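Researcher: Re-running this chain for the archive, since the previous output was lost when a drive failed. Same request as before.
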Amino acid sequence: MHPKLGYIVNLAVTIICLFIFPEFILKSHPIYALIIGAILAIIINTVLGAKWRPWKSIKSE
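Model: Regenerated structure tokens:
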């Protein structure tokens, strides 16, 4: 995946999982929702292959 596209996908999935998921799905348990959202974001980003790469490796390519 292209680095910029990977960053955008990673950011979008993380925002959705950490902010929108707890807000609408588990309103009564915000701490549990935040933990579940973080785990869900990691799993989805890993499956999609949207990984953060260091700036040096992008710059050298």
